[in-house]
Design brief:
The protein has 2 domains: about 45 residues; about 200 residues, Glycoside hydrolase/deacetylase (TIM Barrel). It is elongated. It is of the alpha/beta class and about 260 residues long. The strands form 3 sheets. Strands 2, 3, 4, 7, 8 and 9 form a 6-stranded parallel sheet that branches. Helices cover about 45% and strands about 15% of the residues. The relative contact order is 0.19. Bound molecules: zinc ion. The site of zinc ion has 5 residues, from β2.
Amino acid sequence: MSPAPLLRAGLLATAGLGAGLLLGGRPRSGLLALAAAHATFCATAAAPNHALTGPLIRRFTPRDRELWLTLDDGPDPAATPAILDVLERHRARATFLLIGKRAARHPDLVRAITAAGHEIGNHSHTHPAATFWTAGPARLAREIDDAQRAIHAAAGITPAFFRPPVGMANLFLDPLLRARGLRRLGWSVRAFDTRPQDPAALLDRLTAACYPGAIVLLHERGATAGTAILDAFLTRLRRAEFRVTLPAEAQLLVDSLA
Ligand SMILES: [Zn+2]
């Protein structure tokens, strides 16, 4: 049995034990057991980019100096067209993790992304960053399915990857993804580019962290210097002889435990 179902079963057992003790007149032990179940749920959900709750792709096997660029939170009329230009100029291919609601609002941008040879993944329908990890199965399913539908309606494609808002997954997510043939996509390198910071320092840190087989996470609308950062980053990668590309299926490495 893989760790996620075991964890789920343990969690339910602990919560059940807690409820039983509570109802059976042993409130202190009952509360302790419930607290343990609650703490486990929070610990596995609140830490981003981990494989405790189910399989996760965080890197791939490079054929040469390959790097996988992933761009979150689009499409965005103020960012996507400029990003597509920059990528084209650098002959780079990327995966765009789209928010379903935005895809529904800007179907032309979704089509422009695929027409340029890039890949599209599902990044939830409404991007509830603060509450996604606390959601139950019904709400998670809605977030996944509504985004799949919006992306399909816009560009006629069905994403194969799902990245939770801010990377936080909980124990309910994995079975839902599995049932839909979706894989959870994490990252190897990120730069917290949604926080304002010194562009030169961000660029140095980001470039230094890259290695062949890494998955880089950036946002379509980073807080710092817009697409200039992406342009400069791709220039540096080229100088370091990286190839920014979409890995083939056989190259993906799936981690099943953090
Ligand atoms: Zn996001």
